[in-house]
Design goal:
- This is DNA polymerase IV.
- Its cofactor is Mg(2+).
- InterPro entries: DNA/RNA_pol_sf, DNA_pol_Y-fam_lit_finger_sf, DNA_pol_Y-fam_little_finger, DNA_polymerase-Y, DNApol_IV, PolY_HhH_motif, Rev_trsase/Diguanyl_cyclase, UmuC.
- It is an enzyme of class 2 (transferase).
- Among the domains are: 60 residues, MutS, DNA mismatch repair protein, domain I; 54 residues, 5' to 3' exonuclease, C-terminal subdomain (DNA polymerase, domain 1, Orthogonal Bundle), CATH 1.10.150; 149 residues, Dna Ligase, domain 1.
- The protein is α+β, with helices and mostly antiparallel strands and 398 residues long.
Length: 398
């Protein structure tokens, strides 16, 4: 029994170039390379003309005279990566980052909560496109190796599921270069011995592969060719923060509606903060507009707190500070994160303790909502409002 295909390999397509095309509409659909003297990334339009990563810019221009060269913007790429990885961590607790633009995700055990691995992959791709504005390819398979090969085969902007009963049918016809760890030198050794496909390598005895390629490399590649890859997804350490966001769609929202949505987010996050026995030192507000531009504002408090009203007041001030006429700018997403979390017992109270009454109110409201549901008690400002104000809730993260 080979098990189920529950490993996702998610890989952003032509990452740096895609960020440039997202941020500058004039670059969309045109050949773009990122770099100075050497190509750091190439759009798929440039790749179609033979441009490749690590090629000299001069060579790239010779292959594609109309190519547009843009300098790297590492801060923009890092910000995009953080946004995408937040979605990964919203999807599953088991995320193994490989680089700035790719990761493995283990989604086994989420079927009852989130659907099949394929359904989870479909939603992940939709969220990355909608929330970050970037294309991403995803491979789904039983092992990390197969999932990575599947994501490469699905590019650009695709999804490929390799079910256990068709693993050999998928993998064995592929060139040996698709094996993880086969570079130019190893490929040449295999080619000299008449081995050009993964299936041909799998048909060898392990001892033969070890003799040709060395004991360690030969054993590893032969095992992959025979579909043996026992490595689990190793969850990487996450930043200590919690957050939530809402996708707002394209309709205009008034300032009062945005304030109401922000209130809903803070209410939920503050309760989660108290449920885990934590306090927060930094409030971060993130906004995305219809043209994919973004605004981020944050404030670090003098002392950590878990008080709803304090955190809400900070978030509302951050929202007001972005733009006096913010409702006219077409906000498509609003998100809040609480960062620099501290365990409740580690926070030293200030004197005088003038926050006790508010703390009791928070505790009482939390108890009511735990027993009777989140809608049992609500704010007067939210009564009678169009349900549309409760914009689609996106998965939250810890």
């Amino acid at each position: 029994m080979r098990g189920e295909a529950t490993v996702l390999h998610a890989d952003l397509d032509a990452f740096y170039a895609s960020v440039e095309q997202r941020d500058d509409p004039a670059l969309r659909g045109r050949p773009v390379i990122v770099g100075g003297g050497v190509v750091a990334a190439a759009s798929y339009e440039a790749k179609a003309r033979g441009v490749r990563t690590a090629m000299s810019t001069q060579r790239a221009r010779a292959l594609c005279p109309e190519v547009i060269v843009v300098p790297p913007r590492m801060e923009a790429y890092s910000a995009a990566s953080r946004s995408v990885f937040a979605i990964f961590h919203d999807t599953t607790p088991y995320v193994e980052g490989i680089s700035i633009d790719e990761a493995f995700l283990e989604v086994g055990g989420l079927r009852r909560l989130a659907g099949t691995p394929e359904q989870i992959a479909v939603r992940l791709r939709e969220r990355v496109r909608a929330e970050v504005g970037l294309p991403i390819s995803v491979g789904v398979a039983r092992t990390k190796f197969l999932a990575k090969v599947a994501s490469a085969a699905s590019k650009p902007d695709g999804l490929l599921v390799v079910e256990p009963d068709r693993e050999e049918e998928f993998l064995h016809p592929l060139p040996v270069e698709r094996l993880w760890g086969v570079g130019a030198v190893t490929a040449e050794k295999l080619h000299r011995n008449g081995i050009r496909t993964v299936g041909q390598l799998a048909a060898l005895e392990a001892e033969t592969a070890e003799r040709w390629l060395g004991k360690a490399a030969g054993a590893h590649l032969h095992a992959l060719a025979r579909l043996r890859d026992p490595r689990p997804v190793e969850a990487t350490t996450r930043h200590e923060s919690i957050g939530s966001q809402r996708a707002l769609g394209n309709r205009a929202y008034s300032g009062a509606e945005l304030s109401a949505i922000l209130t809903q987010i803070i209410d939920g996050l503050a309760k989660r903060l108290r449920d885990r026995g934590s306090s927060c030192s930094t409030v971060v507000l993130r906004l995305r507009f219809g043209d994919f531009t973004k605004a981020t504002r944050s404030r670090t408090l003098a002392t950590p707190t878990d008080r709803t009203e304090v955190l809400l007041a900070v978030a509302q001030r951050l929202l007001a500070a972005v733009d006096p006429d913010i409702s006219a700018r077409g906000i498509t997403l609003i998100g809040v994160s609480f960062a620099q979390l501290t365990r409740g017992g580690e926070v030293q109270p200030e004197l005088p303790l003038d926050w006790n009454d508010g703390a009791r109110i928070d505790t009482a409201l939390d108890a009511v909502r735990d027993r009777f549901g989140s809608a049992a008690v609500t704010r007067a400002t939210l009564l009678g409002r169009d349900p549309g104000v409760s914009a689609p809730r996106l998965p939250e993260h810890d």
